[in-house]
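To whoever is on call:

I kicked off a structure prediction for a single chain this morning and the downstream step that reads the tokens threw a length-mismatch warning. I double-checked the sequence; it's 256 residues and nothing unusual in it as far as I can see. Pasting both halves so you can look.
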Amino acid sequence: MQLSRRLLFGSSVWEVSRPRTPLTSGHLLIRLSDPATALDHRSAAAWLLCHNAARTALADVLGAATCTLLFAHRWHALGAAIGEPAAESSTPTFHLFGRWDGEPVTPSEQLSLPAQRRKPVPDQDLDKYDAGLRTALLKAATAAAGSTAAGSGSGAPLPAIRSWTPPDAAGPHHTVLAPERTISSVADVTPPELLALAAALEALALQQAVTGFSCVVPDTALMGRFELHALGRSAGEAVNPLEKILRSPEISQPLL
């Protein structure tokens, strides 16, 4: 098991690194550099820069054509942690899984196993990619920095967020969130929309009788639109909704 994270790129707010237990060669983390940092327009813009740079780097180095995002809100993986990466810390952390043709193991194959049975990617395999990822991340982030920083919009009202229960819900507390406008690429999400999604997720946590949420954002290239799937979780749940959603028609093995 990996004992430390490999830092691949760092900004003043977020860092892109390998997790302590990387499940595939395309598995990256985006996590706060300082856990005390508030989510505001500046940190939202920085998150989008890191996320988009990570996707670009995964495409350039591994040929990853699609990426799926997993994260938890007010929730930590328990026990076998089926369907979700094991919690590493209380710091806000987002798991990005790049997918490419010919990958030796898929994220769903790993996440379907109990956490103690998952096999982390060996260091020697990561060594083949990580130097290239560091270079590609820096290049992509530098190229995007100017456009990401332009126009704060921090004083404007947050955009509207739609929410609905999908027809093939993975449980009684499965809600989909999306900005009012149709977004066909995560790269098109704006900082105000990211803040609005965070506010909608927090409101959902206060409204529903759940402990927290496991969240999945499938790749927009496969879904055709941006959607955040929030799955209500609790320690006493009868069924783990992630076990169902990983086998659902929309978020299935081809996606994750």
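Update from on-call: the warning came from a stale cache, not from the record. Cleared it. Sanity check on the structure: The mean pLDDT is 90.
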